[in-house]
């Protein structure tokens, strides 16, 4: 039990990094699944609200931009977990990961993308992407809770300064 308490952050970190890193191939190569999600579903939805190009290549929420943020979060999480004296790095990675994945969950819930993504061929992922996003969100939140003394100290210094 002591081992688990001491190393639980590794399980959370490895899960988050696995989910983020395994999706990079799709986001960075313009795979049909990624094009469908970002350019066929999300960008037309954003355009209907007056934000054309938001999810298109070159947009501020394009697949490559989101993928880059996920890569940075993964590197920060893994580096912070490996260097025990650098919990602040892990906090930054968990915070970035939480922000990215909160956006993903919101887009699943509040856009035509939906919880179960239906692909152009009519197949459904059965909600797998959404469930993985929820798992990443919970893992990032748990890491931030475990490392709360670090970020609470930052908040305390801001208020005092």
Please give the structural blueprint.
Layout lengths: L1 H21 L1 H6 L2 H17 L14 H20 L4 H24 L17 H19 L1 H13 L1
Helix pairs in contact: 1-4, 1-6, 4-5, 5-6
Secondary structure category: mainly alpha
Low-confidence stretches: none
Radius of gyration: 17 Å
General shape:
elongated
- The percent range for helix content is over 70%
Domain tally: 1
Mean pLDDT: 91
Count of helical segments?
Answer: 7
* Percent of sequence in beta strands: under 5%
The main sheet comes to:
none
Oligomer: single chain
How far apart the termini lie comes to 40 Å
Number of strands: 0
How would you spell out the order of helices and strands?
HHHHHHH
Question: How would you describe this structure to a colleague?
Answer:
The chain has one domain. 75% of the residues lie in helices and 0% in strands. Helix 4 packs antiparallel against helix 5 (87-110). With 161 residues, the chain is mainly α. The protein has seven helices and no strands.
């Amino acid at each position: 039990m002591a081992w688990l308490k001491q190393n639980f952050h590794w399980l959370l970190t490895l899960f988050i990094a696995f989910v983020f890193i395994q999706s990079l191939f799709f986001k960075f190569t313009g795979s049909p699944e990624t094009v469908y999600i970002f350019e066929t579903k999300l960008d037309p939805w954003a355009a209907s609200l007056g934000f054309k190009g938001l999810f298109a290549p070159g947009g501020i929420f394009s697949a490559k931009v989101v993928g880059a943020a996920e890569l940075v979060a993964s590197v920060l999480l893994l580096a912070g977990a490996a260097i025990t004296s650098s919990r602040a790095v892990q906090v930054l990675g968990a915070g970035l990961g939480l922000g990215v994945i909160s956006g993903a969950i919101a887009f699943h819930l509040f856009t035509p993308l939906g919880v179960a993504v239906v692909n152009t061929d009519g197949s459904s992922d059965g909600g797998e992407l959404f469930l993985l996003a929820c798992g990443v969100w919970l893992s990032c939140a748990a890491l931030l809770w475990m490392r709360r003394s670090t970020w609470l100290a930052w908040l305390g210094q801001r208020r005092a300064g």
